[in-house]
Amino acid sequence: MADLVVSLSGVVDGVAVPADVVRSSAILRHLHAYMRQNADQLGLNTVSDVYADGPHDIPKFTLTPSRPLQADASPPVTLLSIHLVYVWEQQSTSRSPSFAPLFSSQLLLPISSILDDAVEKLLCTQFVRRYPLIFGSWRMRLELELDLLLPLGNALSNVIRRSRDADFRSACNRIIEGIRSKNNVRHTASSAALGACFSLEVSTAILSTLDPIAHVSDCMTISNSLRHVYRASVFPSRFKVTPIVLSSDYMDIC
């Protein structure tokens, strides 16, 4: 699982906020503080300092997952970046929008409360719920299950193979072939969905690199099916955000 870059920009009354204003804003420090405060719960090893690739580039920071997810037969898709845009609409008749107070270097307490709610929703509904294989405790629970699924699949396939009952072996083999067929259908659908996100040339190149799963062993077929059952039936619990403690050492509060 690769590092994930989170970048931030802003818009006030339809006008883009300059990158240097965003970089010096309390709203950026607020988001960054929340990510560091909840890093362990999110399954992150580190949250880097804020940086920019150039003088006019938007600010960003890098998230490093604590543990890579075990590979399976599904088409691999790696999320590399998330770009967040803070949009602020002011009730003002002025034609020249002011980037204060949201993008000020000082954080007003009423705005702090709004930002707390916004970041909590971002982490709960967008990060953890949308990307449970990257963020939150569900991924960790899945990894514990994966450690058991391969030995279980191996044990079941051995029982079937060593059975002296021909009818039992035949019935089990039919079931496994049915599972393998369903796995192939899911694999094909996932590959097609992945290819639909890109141009014809790019999607053709991507699909050509994906390994077919028709040759997968009985052990892996059973294990992959059990993995799918777990992922389809066990849902992430609600993520509880740990609020940050505002201090003048980290950001100005007024």
Provide a quick synopsis of the model.
The protein is α/β, with parallel strands linked by helices.
Give the key terms.
8 helices; five-stranded mixed beta sheet; alpha/beta; two-stranded parallel sheet; 254 residues; 2 domains
Bulk shape? elongated
Tally the beta strands: 7
Question: N-to-C terminal Cα separation, in Å?
Answer: 40 Å
Question: What's the helix-strand series?
Answer: EEHHHEEEEHHHHHE
Mean pLDDT: 82
Helices, by number, come to: 8
What class do helices, strands and sheet pairing give?
Answer: alpha/beta
Strand content: 5-15%
Largest sheet: number of strands, sense, barrel closure = 5 strands, mixed
Poorly predicted spans? none
Number of domains: 2
Helix content: 40-55%
**Radius of gyration from CA coordinates:** 24 Å
Molecular structure report:
The protein is an alpha/beta fold. The protein has two domains: 4-136 and 241-253, no CATH class; 138-233, no CATH class. The chain contains eight helices and seven strands, in the order ββαααββββαααααβ. Strands 1, 2, 3, 4 and 5 form a five-stranded mixed beta sheet that branches. A two-stranded parallel sheet has the order 6-7. A hairpin with a 2-residue loop joins strand 1 and strand 2 (15-16). The longest helix is centred in the C-terminal third of the chain and has 30 residues, at 166-195. The two termini are 40 Å apart.
